[in-house]
Amino acid sequence: MNKQESKKRKMTGTMKKKLAGLFVLILLAFVFLVIGITIINAKSGDKYTKQVLAQSQQQYDSTTIPYKRGDILDRSGNILATSIKVYNVILDCQVVNSNENYKEPTKKALSEYLGIDEDTVEDLLTSAETKESPYQILKKQISMDEKKNFEKMTEIPADKKEAEALSEEETVRRNNTQGVWFEEDYKRTYPLNELACDVIGFTYSGNTADWGLEGYYNSTLNGTDGRKIGYFNDDASLEQNIIDPVNGNSLVTTLDVNIQSVVDKYIEAFMENLKDGPNTDYRGAKNIGVIVANPQNGEILAMGSNDPYDLNEPRDLTSRYSDSELKAMNDEQTKEALYKMWRNYCITDAYEPGSVVKPITVASALESGSITEEDTFVCDGGEQVADRYINCAVYPDSHGTETVGEAIQNSCNDALMAIGRKMGKETLLSYQDKFNFGTRTGIDLPGEGTGILFSLDNMFDTELATTTFGQGFTCTMIQEVAAISACINGGTYYQPHLVKEIKDQDNNTIKSISGNVLKEVISQEVSADIRKYMGMSVESGTSQTAKIPGYSMGGKTGTAEKVPRGNHKYLVSFVGFAPLDNPEVVIYVVVDEPNVEEQASSTYAQYIAQAILSEIFPYLNIYPDQETDQKLQLWDEFTGTTRMDESVNGEDGNGPSGVVIDGTENPDMPEPPQDDSEEEGIDSNNAESDGITNEDAGFDEDDMEE
């Protein structure tokens, strides 16, 4: 027993010595390790620290905070275009792949609550190119409601009782749904859908636009993105700097949604009611355009055309073409179809205007002294000009001896040709320039056309004669509205415009746009004469169909034979205003090839104008200023109370069955000159160029108002 104890003690002593030696070795190694780490840290510590932090900071890199594009409002503050907050669904593949338990719950949640295909998510999580990516866009522009619903169904409730009510399985599922976050963005939306679509335009992706106000004022509406920058400070703590975005400016337009709605309503009613006409290529007319404006300052209150499109679905052609037609289109044909749908007929298309320019011709002749208001003219049914005979509208009948006012009242081509001879081509062309025909008006919309005029070199006797009554040259609707406004407002030519105020993101007005006076084209005395003559046209001439009982009005009809001559295709129109002595509103209606057997009647344009004016006069607080026992009778297709042949009966210049004849059918009438100016006239312009300069528009500085 004693021997065994002695042996045990010897073994224990040996072990202690060995352990002591091992401890010394470990201690020495540790000392050397500490010394080595100290040396490395002293020499390269900052380098390694930055590398580690840089790797950790990948998920905290700077992100963009998008700006909100400015709104477009009507004159009363109704929203025409706005941007609503939406969210892009982002998948952080690094996070999901960091734990095998995250993958299935995350895929199922994305599928169930956001409709994202599980295979799509699986591909991103396993692909060599994306499995380590912290940023993969799964879905764009989901709504706030969709975002909130996803968060509600995948997060543990903050309320303790609600959290405890979850099953253990549900709690695990929610805790394992990871790596999904939402990136803020904005989506452009148009609450009134197709209303004023030609004027408003739409945006492409990325807040860019080419059409309408969206395109013209693109840079004004756009803002500047903000930034959220994450970084580690000197203490290795995560910090953020936020640079707030600057939202875009908003536009307050001159448009009135109520007036625009009335315009659109009657255009569509006309199109629908004549859809079964002889022409199967279109419904009620090939084209219809309507402009309602304030002649005292150039503000456009409404502007519309036929077959509008939904601004929220600007590439949807299904309402215009069948499925088979769409499938048969190649890319170029589809592009052409879209451009045709998007174009603004009221400012882009140029055409021969017809007799609506007669008041402008007479105003020019009076202002230049070529005629006086006491002059008279003899209409014998037409006139031999050079090698051809040009008819008056009532040929083979005639108007006989007429005053200047009666020439307008009766829409007499013969009298206007006589007036043209007295003016001469130099004077006539100079006043076409003064009234801004042949150049852009500078309206704040892209794609404005110019039309084509004769020059001194190619205007001969025949061209001079037909130009006086609106044949042989072309213009746009907006040119006619601006010119006729100057004729009736006292002689002031205002630049037509659609935006009256620009406001910043805090609703402060940074720019006000009132009437921009470009020049004085005629005297107040001549302007008063023109109003009187156009009043005669409404009271007892070719414009009677447009009359609103109880209101003093002026107007002028137009019936232009289209090229090629003799094909029985016409563009008919009406321009009118009220009240007669102090015009507050002007309307111009163009109906291009109405879908009827006999197109040469301006009554079709007058029906639309009368219906629109009958509704907007009370709305604009334009009160009746004439005593009358007559009641308003609209076209029977609008009201069902009167027949088409009961509108007008047998006055001078009027044919049977209410058909107003004020044009001329003559296959020998000259066609408009052909050159490149029309092509140049449809180039895009925008707010940066302020439309056009006065020099580009042909305005003489001497004509500008001081």
Automatic annotation (TrEMBL):
Pfam family, one: Transpeptidase
Keyword Flavoprotein: no
Compositionally biased residues, Acidic residues: 673-682, 697-706
Keyword Membrane in annotation: yes
Matching SUPFAM superfamilies: beta-lactamase/transpeptidase-like, Penicillin binding protein dimerisation domain
Residue ranges with Polar residues bias: 683-692
Name the record gives this protein: Stage V sporulation protein D
Species annotation: Blautia parvula
Subcellular compartments: Membrane
Domain (Penicillin-binding protein dimerisation) ranges: 65-233
UniProt record similarity statement: Belongs to the transpeptidase family.
Domain Penicillin-binding protein transpeptidase: 289-613
Gene3D superfamilies in UniProt: DD-peptidase/beta-lactamase superfamily, Penicillin-binding protein 2a (Domain 2)
Renumbered residue ranges of the record's region Disordered: 643-706
Keywords: Membrane
